[in-house]
Amino acid sequence: MTGSKKEISRMLRIARISWVTITLLLLAGNAMAVEEAKYNVLREEEEFELREYESHILAETTVDGKFEDAGNEAFGRLFKYISGNNKQQKEVAMTSPVGQEPSSQKIEMTSPVGQQKQDGKWVVSFMMPASFTLETTPEPKDPNVSIREVPVRLIAAVRYSGFWSEKSYRRNLTKLQDWIANNRLTPVGEPVWARYNPPFTPWFLRRNEILVPVASP
Known about the structure:
single chain, alpha+beta, Multidrug-efflux Transporter 1 Regulator Bmrr, Chain A, 2 domains, two-stranded parallel ribbon
């Protein structure tokens, strides 16, 4: 009997620790919340959605490597860009004296981090804050980082949690392609693998998506 009480007490203690851990992780996630790409949901079915994305600016870079390695290699390059490795050309009011010089600007982190295949390589991208335009986005110092504007477009999306693995990506991409076909939608671009969480986020709390541009129905 005494042994049973000890076991129950131990299990309750473990349960309390588990809930505290999960709560802290969720609070940390909220504290680290970042701006996300803006879109309207036009259709929703279980884990699938048809979205209309607003126009936005991307900073992107191309790397040659395996699926799991490409994002890590590109992330450092893009993170340096938003951390100040950029040139902001600034007009200065007519004062005395008149001076103008390049300056570095830190850019707020946004989500998701996108990754898509192009010509056998991987293009990884960061979305710029919504307040940025093509003209006001700081110019990268690194020639391997480029800036482009993405117009308003329709996106078919599937959402899933779990590890950042190619196996999981391909499994969910197949599910999304089936959903697109069943809804008589036409893909008009390459799929984008979207990640919304930092690497230290537990696999079961991660938000992953695959986004496929589609033509208007």
